[in-house]
Write a structure and sequence with these properties.
A: 155 residues, Thiol Ester Dehydrase, Chain A, five-stranded antiparallel β-sheet, 35% strand, elongated, B: 142 residues, alpha+beta
Chain lengths: 155, 142
């Protein structure tokens, strides 16, 4: 029902808004720690000698890693805090990635993120706000390396 | 020699499963490596105050488990083009979770030989907590 919607007109107007671009310097150590945290022993992410002999010609990031921090949360709250009353908890609802080019240590990526959609559902914990963000990652020579879609649930 | 060739994979073929046994220690490590410091993933008091039985596995970590399954399967001669999942259910430290997948479609797109897959994370309770889809490009024998 429109009357008890938690998405105000002011909030709805934010759909399509672009966040400040965020720069990610992709560090070799951060790639290794990421792969270690996943417990993914693939030498493509850590061993120069092995990686050189692969079609990649050197170490690359695991698909899904675009530098630290992972997940598009930088600056997101500034868009979502306009919900009244404020929702204090957050869950990840889903992710979608498209990979176009490998990301390598030393790359400097910039993510361009927009709030693609907002919708609400009522669950056992009450009203839930779904916020969908779309991020495009470009490298230092302006090539699009990947796109990510993040659905966050606020409740 | 590539691990997977387009011609050798039939619709219905299974992706080699990947078994994971996440611990709270791994979740802490992931928190640091990913930068997701939401306490629900490592502070039991916070998790329980939200009505959960305990800390929960990060969604993005499960996403990454699915990616590991796919990249292990295709090897360095294949490329992961697209992957998605939804977090429908929760998994907890101590669970044994298995990443699985099935090839549901094959198609050629320009010079790319693609396999479309249904993927999921299933825990030992038989719950499919993280269903999704993926498209990989693999070498052709042609």
């Amino acid at each position: 029902m429109a009357d008890d919607s938690i998405i105000t007109d002011e909030t709805r107007a934010k759909i399509g808004t672009t966040l400040e671009p965020v720069v990610f310097e992709v560090e070799k150590g951060a790639i290794r720690r990421f792969a270690q945290a996943v417990e993914d022993p693939n030498p493509l992410y850590a061993e120069d000698e092995y990686a050189r002999k692969t079609p990649y010609g050197g170490i690359v990031c695991p698909p899904g890693f675009f530098g630290w921090p992972v997940g598009q949360t930088v600056g997101m709250e500034t868009l979502i805090n306009v919900v009244d009353p404020p929702l204090k908890n957050i869950l990840n609802g889903g992710n979608e990635a498209e990979f176009y080019l490998p990301v390598r240590p030393g790359d400097v990526l910039v993510s361009y993120t927009k709030l693609a959609d907002l919708y609400e559902k009522t669950g056992s914990a009450g009203k839930m706000l779904f916020a969908v963000f779309e991020a495009t990652y470009k490298n230092q020579v302006d090539q699009v390396v990947a796109k990510m879609r993040y659905t966050f649930i606020f409740y | 020699m590539a691990k997977v060739y387009y011609e050798d994979v039939a619709v219905g073929a299974e992706i080699t499963p990947l078994v994971k046994e996440p611990t709270t220690r791994q979740l802490v490590r992931w928190a640091g490596a990913s930068g997701d410091f939401n306490e629900v993933h490592y502070d039991k008091d916070v998790a329980q105050s939200l009505g959960l039985p305990g800390v929960i596995v990060h969604g993005l970590l499960k996403f990454q488990f699915l990616i590991q399954m796919l990249t292990d399967w295709i090897g360095v001669d294949g490329t992961l083009q697209k992957v998605s999942c939804r977090y429908r259910g929760m998994d907890f430290p101590g669970d044994t979770i298995t990443c699985k997948g099935t090839v549901v479609n094959k198609f050629v797109d320009g010079d790319q030989h693609c396999l479309e897959c249904e993927i999921t994370v299933e825990n030992q309770r038989g719950e499919q907590t993280t269903p999704g889809r993926a498209i990989v490009a693999v070498p052709s024998r042609g």
